[in-house]
Amino acid sequence: MADRLVVLYRDHLPPNRARIESLAETVYATEEELPLFLPGADALLAWWPLTSAVAGAWPDDPAKAPRWVHVAAAGVEPFLFPALTDNPEVVLTNARGVYDRPIAEYVLGLILSLAKDFPGTWEHQRRREWRPSDSERIGHRTVLVWGTGSIGRAVARLLRAVGMRVSGAGRTPRATDPDFGVVHGPAGLREALGEADYVVLAAPLTPATRGMVDAPVLAAMKRGARLVNVGRGPLVDEQALVDALAQGRLAGAALDVFTHEPLPTESPLWEMPGVIISPHTAGEVTDWRADLGELFLDNLLRRREGRPLRNVVDKALGYVVDG
């Protein structure tokens, strides 16, 4: 018997839905409709992942809860509520891998934009001003990639390929890593922050990482360094970041994610010099929805055939663990 699958969506449906429907008894639900369809379903595809609706619609009776939840995103923090995480029968998977290369390319683009002052060049062009100026090299600059999952690894590989000196920061220190070289643990983090020209945040949002870049961390960064955040907005204390930028301790920041999205119009970040803002689009490329759909379809086939699922999230940690 085919699985009873609920697809939670908002503006878009999966592009390969005909193939999904051939493998599962499928119903499509908005956030408002989810409480009607989720009880008794075998599986949930959270095609719209930036939602709190799943926690509210989750059945009180564990026997009526889905046994598999797939999130069409790398981050799964809205799905880490007790009724799901405490139920050992529920498997949670995510879209790990889909965004790795696009986000790595985006990070490289942001670093180049900051080093070459592309925003300044474009502003001078807009004003029809001819202002020659020197720019910075990125070769041999030091980068600390905070977050050693698959996105962080893709970032590290690409930045090393263009001649940057890369290290990582994670829970477990190690002296030899194929992508980062050295991974700094908590004990070595302050020294690493003080040496980095760029700090790239690629960590998941968990209780342990929320607010990890606070005023003391920003104060520990090298004077004139730049912060790039392609992880999650709440990793950063935004007021502390505004203060560090305003006081000139940091030379700039490139931010794709924010504590509140869309970023409120009154945020001072919009107009701060040296700051690049993008609307949570680092991983979105022309065919990203097709890639998301194919990953889910592969997992749906694996489930039907009794094979292990890809990207099983450790629900205690909040992310997929390497190995």
UniProtKB/TrEMBL annotation:
Name this protein carries in UniProt: D-2-hydroxyacid dehydrogenase
UniProt organism field: Streptomyces rhizosphaericus
Keyword Membrane among UniProt keywords: no
SUPFAM superfamilies xrefs: Formate/glycerate dehydrogenase catalytic domain-like, NAD(P)-binding Rossmann-fold domains
PANTHER family cross-referenced by the UniProt entry: 2-HACID_DH_C DOMAIN-CONTAINING PROTEIN, D-ISOMER SPECIFIC 2-HYDROXYACID DEHYDROGENASE NAD-BINDING DOMAIN-CONTAINING PROTEIN
One Pfam family cited in the UniProt record for this chain: 2-Hacid_dh_C
InterPro entries associated with the record: D-isomer_DH_CS, D-isomer_DH_NAD-bd, NAD(P)-bd_dom_sf
Keywords for the protein's UniProt record, in alphabetical order: NAD, Oxidoreductase
